[in-house]
Amino acid sequence: MRDFGSFDYIIAGGGAAGCVLANRLTANPAITVLLLEAGNDERWIWTKIPVGYLFCINNPRTDWCYQTQAEPGLNGRSILYARGKGLGGSTLINAMLYLRGQARDYDEWARLTGDSNWSWQQVLTSFKAVEHYWQGASEYHGADGEWRVEKQRLSWEILERFAEAATQAGIPNTTDFNTGHNEGVSQFEVNQKFGTRWSSVRGFLNPIRSRRNLTLVTAALSDQVMFEERRAIGIQFYLNGEICQAKSRLETILAAGSIGSPAILQRSGIGEADFLKTKGIPVRVHAPGVGANLQDHLQLRSIYKVQGIQTLNQIANTWHGKIKMGLEYAFLRKGPLTMAPSQLGLFARSDASVATPDLEYHVQPLSLDKFGEPLHEFPAFTASVCDLRPESRGWVKIADAHPQHAPLIAPCYLSTEADRLKAAKALQLTRRIVRQAALQPYQPEEYLPGIDYQTEEELAIAAGKIGTTIFHPVGTCKMGAATDPLAVTDSRLQVRGVQGLRVVDASIMPTITSGNTSSPTIMLAAKAATMILQDRLGA
C-alpha cells in the first residue's frame, strides 16, 4: 500500500465544498491539507463555455453518469442522475444559477438542529462573505468574495412574453430572488465571469494552488476512512489502480457529495447495521441515516410549440445560425453560447394557503427530448416546474464494498399523495400562464405532456411520464439534534459516534432548500471551514 504521509486535514472530494474548504483551511500556512479528487483536473473547453453543459452532462469525461433505480413514481423509468466529475464537481456542469433559497429553509435547519448558527440571519452573513456580486455590496449582497454573480448576457422575446404572461396570471415581478423571500418572476442571475462559467475550482482553488501547504491529488478514488478505535486517522483511496493511504493528524473531511459521501461512510462501516452486514462490511457505527433522507427537485418539463417568434430551435438547427452564435461568443462573449440551461425564473405558490413559494420554474427558449439529444426542428419553449419542498424521501446504498462500482440510487419521486397532487397543480399553473394574453399571438400548442391529460389524477400520471431530476440531491448524511435517530452529523457537521470525521457537502442538509442547491453548498462549506478552524484552536 502506497503511503502519502500525514496531513493536518484530508478532504475527500474536490467539488463545490472541497474547493472552498481547501481555500479556507490553507489560508493559515501552518496548516497542511491533502485534497483528493476522484475525477481529473478538467480543463476541457466545454467546462468553460456556459452552453457546454449540453456536452458535459452524460459524458463520462465530466459526469459520473449515474442511473437511478426504476422509479415507480416515474412509471417505472430509470433516469440519468448526473453528478460532476473532476475538480469543481457539479459546478463544472450545472446550471450556473445563483439562488440561495428562502429564509424559512434555514430557520427550519436551525430548528431541526437546535443551533441558531444555521438561521437565515446567520447564513446571510456567510452568503455575503463568499459573494462577488455584480451590483456591489448591499444589505443582501457582498462584493469581496470569490463566488462571482453576474447578469446574463442575452435576452429572448419569447421569455419576455412568458414573464408578462406570468404577471397576468397573478405572479409579481421581482428584481432579486435572493433576499430571503423569492416570490416572483425575473431573469436568473448566474455564476459567470464575462460570459464564461465560474466554477468552484476557478473561484476558490485556482487562486491558491501554489500554496505550499496544499497537496492536490486527482484521479484519487476515495474508498474508506481509516480508524484507530473510534477516531478517524485518514483515508484509503485508489490511484491508477494502486491502493494508497494518507493519515490525518486532526480531521478527515468527506466532501464527496450526496452520493459519494454516504457511500464512503457505508464502506467504512458507518451506516444501517443490517444492511452493512449483507455487504460483508464490519459495523463500526449503527447509523441508519447514512444514505437515507435523499431529497431532490423533480422537474416537470412542459413543452409548447409556438409560431411567429424566434427560439433557439430555429437558430441552432441551421449552419448560418451556428456560425453567428460562434462569432458572437468569440468576439463579444454574448449570445446563446453564454446561456445557462434556464434563463427565466419564476417562484410561485401551488395554492393560496401556502405561506411561501413552493414551486420553481426554469423557462427556456428551446426544446429537446432530453439532454444530449438535438433540439426539436419546430420552434418551441420549455417551462419546467419543480416542487421545491417534496415530501418524498429516497435513499443511496452501495452496491457492494468496491468503490469502483456505482451506488444504487432511488429518489422515490412522487411517492406521497401530497407530491402527486402538487405535481398536478404545477402543471395546471403552467397551462394557466400559457393561456394569458401575452402569449396568445404566438399560438402556443402543448407538445408535452399533451392535452389528453386533464384531471388531477391524469396530470399526476403525466408528471410521472415527463418528470426528471433537476440534479439537486441533498440530505443523505443530514445534520440534526442528538434526539434525531437519522441525524448522521451534529450541527458542526461532525459524524456522530466517532471522532475526527466530518461531512461537508449538500448531503448534510436536513431539508432541501427552496431553489437550486449549488450556492447553498458553497455557503455551508465556508461556514464549516470556520467551525473547523475554531475547533482546532479549542483543541
From TrEMBL:
InterPro entries: FAD/NAD-bd_sf, GMC_OxRdtase, GMC_OxRdtase_N, GMC_OxRtase_C
Example GO molecular function: flavin adenine dinucleotide binding
Flavoprotein listed as a keyword: yes
Gene3D superfamilies, per database record: FAD/NAD(P)-binding domain, Glucose Oxidase, domain 3
Pfam families with a match to the protein in the record: GMC_oxred_C (PF05199), GMC_oxred_N (PF00732)
Taxonomic superkingdom: Bacteria
Keyword Nucleotide-binding: no
Required cofactor(s): FAD
SUPFAM superfamilies referenced in this protein's UniProt entry, alphabetically: FAD-linked reductases, C-terminal domain (SSF54373), FAD/NAD(P)-binding domain (SSF51905)
Alphabetic keyword roster: FAD, Flavoprotein
Residue ranges constituting the Glucose-methanol-choline oxidoreductase N-terminal domain according to the UniProt record: 84-107, 257-271
Protein family per UniProt: Belongs to the GMC oxidoreductase family.
Name the UniProt record assigns to this protein: Choline dehydrogenase
Organism: Thiothrix eikelboomii
